[in-house]
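User: Hi! I'm working on a homework problem where we have to compare a predicted structure to a textbook description. Could you give me the structure for the chain below?
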Amino acid sequence: MKKHLLSFLFLAGALGTQAQNCSDIFISEYVEGTGNNKALGIYNPTMSPINLNGQYRLLRYNNGTSAAAGEANAQAMINLGNHVIPPATEWVIVIDMRDPLGTGQNVQADPALQAKADTFLCPDYNTSYSMFFNGNDALSIQKTTDGGTTWNYIDIFGMIGDPAMVTGVSWSDQFPYDGSVGAWWTLNHTLIRKPAVEQGVKVNPSPEFIVTTEWDSFPVNTFDSLKVHTCNCPTGAGINEIDNSVSVRLFPNPVVNNHFIVVSSESMSTIEVYNMVGQQVIRKETNRTAKQWMVETGDLPKGVYSVRISFSGGKTKTTELIIQ
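Assistant: Happy to help. Predicted structure tokens:
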């Protein structure tokens, strides 16, 4: 009896911690492409709709601007309006550049990117430039619960007030992560939040923003992953309690040679791969005793996929796969 009680208390504590993490919106995707191909995915990790209801705003901190300077500039921020984000849903913001005759700073955003938008923001740079970000700009989502007197960080992308970005152009993937060494990630890339991320960054990173910690990198002008996000937060009755009882690893991930291997702590029965619009593109049946299985990806196009593994005991787990 004592053993069962301790197990219950441990499970309740774990679920309580997750519920605390999966409690508010965060930036799930960042598109910094050519021209005006600028977009953000905002994910609702909860099991209830979130009404933005004028309580959330997006801010841009231009070229290493400090919080004090950036948040004093009305053009750097925009209210996210009264939209409702359904549970376990990625809401997509695209810069409002839809004029096919636009030139220079007003050049049209790619129609394929426009098609992903749930809302468009910032049509005029001189009114609000929060969506005109590039590789050396930090962003934040803030929330108020007192009508706008006090604003709290819900998520921070980049590092607010990073002196390296005053002259730098992008955060990179190697120490000191300021773009001086390694590959640039926040310029001319799409970044997707890792599935293990269950809440936003609420404290400004210091001494530097290490982009690889929470983000996966994709080539410039990658749009197909918008509107779908994989997150470990629960999405319905009991789903994540089942998922968390099984350990699964995919490697290599990203896939580079047309195959990947699934390693599990329990015997697997089927492995299914789904594309970003929910179509099943691969289904493999194992021998039902295997805890390791190779899956050929063939000529699947580059992008982000969901892999759903079913186990012999009736459990399931879904995780993210990247094909490069």
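For your comparison, note the following. The longest helix spans residues 2-21. The helical segments are 2-21, 67-71, 111-114, 239-243. Good luck with the assignment!
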